[in-house]
Amino acid sequence: MGYAREPSSPIIAICWEENETSINLLKKLGFYFRNAITQNKQVLHIYEIKQEQLL
């Protein structure tokens, strides 16, 4: 049924590379940098946190 897998699914957040306010907030909340991607010639940063870290 997927119950065992659900708690281990990460939560991701995406923000523009230059959005330092959002990046700082994500870090304070426990998110860590996962990778960067380029979209429309701008760099997006992807952060993630494991659901169990939120509890």
Task: Explain the overall architecture.
There is one protein chain. This protein is an alpha+beta fold and 55 residues long. The chain has one domain (6-54). It has two helices and three strands. Strands 1-3-2 form a three-stranded antiparallel beta sheet. Strand 2 and strand 3 (42-50) form a beta hairpin. The model has no long low-confidence stretch (mean pLDDT 86).
- Helix coverage percent: 10-25%
How many domains make up the coordinates? 1
- Average pLDDT number: 86
Write down the secondary-structure element order: EHEEH
Shape: flat
Number of DSSP strand runs: 3
Q: Briefly note the structural class of the backbone.
A: alpha+beta
Number of helices: 2
Could you describe the largest sheet, including whether it forms a barrel? 3 strands, antiparallel
How would you write the strand order of the largest sheet? 1-3-2
State the separation between the terminal residues, measured CA to CA.
Answer: 22 Å
Low-confidence stretches: none
Relative strand content: 35-45%
Radius of gyration: 13 Å
Defining traits:
single chain; 55 residues; alpha+beta; three-stranded antiparallel sheet; 24% helix; 44% strand; flat
